[in-house]
Structures are given as structure tokens and as C-alpha cells.
Design a protein that fits this description.
By secondary structure, the chain is of the alpha/beta class. The protein has 20 helices and 13 strands.
């Protein structure tokens, strides 16, 4: 044992609720703990990261982490924190999502470690698929009363008017299914601790209660939660105007992912660098002190963005995100621009004026194309001519030398884009269709 897991979570701001006796149990030696996630999409998003980081810290403290992919419970949907019932997914979609999540989690946990604490991934569909309703009622249902289940906050919220459609029996039984997962892993894997987000506390304590009522009061089972992460202004963490920030590069490009972390507030950066990186306390304290001396350098945001981007994607993706940032904010070359994939190009220039040009308009001089009423990069031909003479106009990051330079299909980036730069900071993206 190298570190105290509970103390590690405390200084990082990652501990919300903990059952009595949990820390003492963990200090006895290597423990096995699990965290569950439902495969409702083919990628995790950064809202899942706090839980995944808990497992990462758990393993680094010498304990064994199990990540449970809820192939069975994902077919039902958890009512915790939800105002209406989820759409149910078919088995084929759930299996695809599970395989995608497996690959993502492997970047955080060591599944190949030599020793007893190597990470493991399980799917509750494997033990639930042949479990009949009668077996479930006899084995699980008889141990937990309806009164106990009704008292849970997640159930009460759905019954007391915050939900539009009330609470279905399917969702009501969710806490029993999650409780049975804990019982099953307790009996088959020696797993005595469940980790999760704070909205899961009710389901998790149902699991510890089911274990005690099934196996006897001497059975030791524990639960520990991390807080639900929010931004400093109280708004939901991990959401942008375009939706979730995903770990899958096809849903959120590494550049957009990097930019999310780079643009968090100073207060959020100080919290997030503790939660979402594996940097030690001494390193983080030094970074915070350096940042406070000169906040304008954004020391915390830059290191946070680097650590999380490298961990989720790769060092190469981080370097490309830096290079993409330089295209917009610093000096770069046409070669740098051409290395960007289409989605990253669109992400980089998301906020700049955007025009559309018909492909049959190519073959005209730049002075004609970029002063049209529908492609108003320059107010007039005179203004454009004057800026070109002063070296202040670039096409695709190369100086435009002549007002009458003909623009052809050979100039297109990815066969469809032209990037015009007026002065140092004014960009215009033209889509040619």
C-alpha cells in the first residue's frame, strides 16, 4: 500500500459521502471495489471522468478496480437524477457501446498489471441474462421491502411531481438490480466496496443492505461517492453549446477537447486539476502558486489541458491541438493548415465569419471573389488592393501577392474550403460547393 485512498480523494475534493468504517476497511490491505456505468452511448463524456479517475486513484493506491458496464441495467434506465424515463436500447446497440467504452477505460486503468490488483471489466448482462423474474423475486425481492425502496430520494423526486410521467415499475426495480450487481460481485469477486457519483448513493446503500440481509449482518460492504462536478457558477459541468464534451474523437475532436479545458475559469482550473489529473499534491500546489503570481499566463489551464488531453487521447493529439491553436492565435504555415482533418478545421474556425461560394465561381481573380456581396471579406476592391500591397492579406496561411491572382480548385483545402486572413486576427472561412 503506497497511499491512503480516502485521504487521496479528500485533498483532491473527490469525496462526497462515505459509509462508516470504509476507511478502516481500506487500510487493512488490498480491497476490491467497483464502479458501474451504463452503455447508453458509444462513448463516455467528461461527466463520467470523475468516477473513472476514482478507479484510477484506487488502483494507484494498491487496490483492485472493477469497471462494470451495465449491459443489463442499461436496458432499463436508472431514475436517479432523471426527470423522465430513458429510451430503452436493444442488445446489439448496447454491445457495440460496451466495446467502445472498454477501449476508452483501458487508457485510465491497468488491465495488464502483474499482481492481484490488475483492473477488470465485467458486464452485468452476463449474470442477468438467464435470471428469470421468478428467480429474481425469490432471491432478491424478498429481502428488500417496498417501504425501504420508496424512501429513496431518487424515487421520491420522481413520485412527487418533478417527473412528467411518474415512475414506471421497470425503473422502480432499478435499485434492486444494481443492488444485486453488488451482491454478485461480493460473492464471486470478493468485492466489498462500491464507488459512484453522489446521485447514486441511494442505489449503492440498497446494495450494502441487500448484502447484509442476504448473507448476514457480519457481511461487510461499503459505499463511497464523489461529488457531482459543477462549474464555479453552479452550472452543469462538461456541457457546451453543442452538447457534451465526449472522449471519442469522432464526437469531440482532440482540438475541441483541449480547448474546453484551456478555457475553464481560474476557480474551476484549480478544482479540476486535482480531480482530473494524476499529478501529486506538491506539483499541483506549486502550479497553483505559480498561476496566482501571474494569472494572465493561464498556467493552471494550460497544464490541465495538457494532462487530460494526453491521458484521454495521446501526446501526438495534444501536439496537434497546440498546432491547431497556433493557426488561429499565432504564427503557422500552410503545411500546418493542411494537416488538419476537416472537423478540426471547422472547430478551429468555428467562431469566424463563414461564407458559401458556388464551385462554378472559381477561376476568377481574388479581387472579384472576395469583394462580392455574398462573400464580403473586404468592404471594397480599393481596400483589398491597399491591404495586399501592404502584405496584410493571406490565403490559406500564405501571403496573397496580387489582387488579380486567380483562385482555382487547386487552392481548396480538403477540396472545399478557402481560408482568407485580413490583417493579423481577422479570418474568413469560405465553403465552396
Amino acid at each position: 500500500m503506497t497511499k491512503n485512498f480516502v485521504e487521496e480523494l479528500k485533498w483532491r475534493g473527490m469525496l462526497a459521502q462515505i459509509m462508516p468504517g470504509t476507511e478502516e476497511f481500506l487500510n487493512k490491505g488490498m480491497a476490491t471495489a467497483y464502479l458501474g456505468t451504463d452503455p447508453t452511448a458509444d462513448s463516455l463524456h467528461i461527466g463520467h471522468l470523475c468516477g473513472i479517475m476514482m478507479l484510477r486513484h484506487l488502483q494507484r493506491c494498491g487496490h483492485k478496480p472493477i469497471i462494470l458496464v451495465g449491459g443489463a441495467t442499461g436496458m432499463i434506465g436508472d431514475p436517479s437524477g432523471k426527470s423522465q424515463e430513458r429510451n430503452l436500447l436493444d442488445a446489439e446497440t448496447l454491445y457495440h457501446n460496451q466495446e467502445c467504452i472498454k477501449r476508452q477505460v483501458a487508457k485510465f486503468l491497468d488491465f495488464d498489471a502483474e499482481g492481484p490488483n490488475k483492473a477488470e471489466l465485467v458486464n452485468n448482462y452476463d449474470w442477468m441474462k438467464d435470471f428469470t423474474f421468478l428467480d429474481f423475486a425469490r432471491t432478491v425481492g424478498k429481502h428488500i421491502t417496498v417501504n425501504y425502496m420508496m424512501a429513496k430520494e431518487s424515487v421520491q423526486q420522481r413520485l412527487n411531481g418533478t417527473a412528467r410521467d411518474g415512475l414506471s415499475f421497470t425503473e422502480f426495480t432499478y435499485q434492486l438490480l444494481q443492488g444485486y450487481d453488488f451482491l454478485y460481485l461480493y460473492q464471486t469477486k470478493g468485492c466489498q466496496l462500491q464507488l459512484g457519483g453522489n446521485d447514486q448513493w441511494g442505489n449503492m446503500t440498497t446494495g450494502t443492505e441487500l448484502i447484509r440481509r442476504t448473507l448476514g449482518q457480519e457481511a461487510e460492504a461499503y459505499a463511497l461517492t464523489c461529488p457531482l462536478i459543477t462549474k464555479a457558477d453552479g452550472k452543469k459541468f462538461g456541457k457546451t453549446e453543442s452538447g457534451n464534451v465526449w472522449l471519442d474523437r469522432n464526437r469531440t475532436t482532440p482540438y475541441a477537447f483541449y480547448q474546453f479545458w484551456l478555457n475553464v475559469s481560474d476557480a474551476d482550473a484549480e478544482r479540476y486539476i486535482k480531480i482530473f489529473t494524476s499529478l501529486d499534491k506538491e506539483t499541483i500546489d506549486a502550479l497553483i502558486e505559480e498561476h496566482q503570481q501571474d494569472p494572465g499566463r493561464r498556467t493552471l489551464q494550460r497544464r490541465l489541458a495538457e494532462e487530460v488531453t494526453v491521458m484521454v487521447h495521446s501526446r501526438e493529439d495534444y501536439d496537434m491541438a497546440i498546432e491547431a491553436s497556433n493557426i488561429l492565435f499565432g504564427k503557422s504555415t500552410k503545411e500546418s493548415l493542411l494537416r488538419l482533418d476537416e472537423q478540426t478545421l471547422l472547430d478551429v474556425f468555428d467562431g469566424v465569419p463563414h461564407f458559401t461560394l458556388a464551385k462554378d465561381q472559381l477561376g476568377q481573380p481574388a479581387g472579384e471573389l472576395f469583394t462580392r456581396d455574398d462573400v464580403k471579406v473586404f468592404a471594397s476592391k480599393g481596400e483589398m488592393r491597399k491591404l495586399i500591397q501592404g502584405g496584410g492579406v493571406s490565403l490559406n496561411k500564405e501571403k496573397l501577392e496580387a489582387f488579380d491572382r486567380v483562385i482555382t480548385a487547386d487552392d481548396l483545402i480538403d477540396g472545399k474550403y478557402l481560408l482568407v486572413q485580413r490583417g493579423k486576427k481577422n479570418y474568413f472561412l469560405i465553403t465552396v460547393k
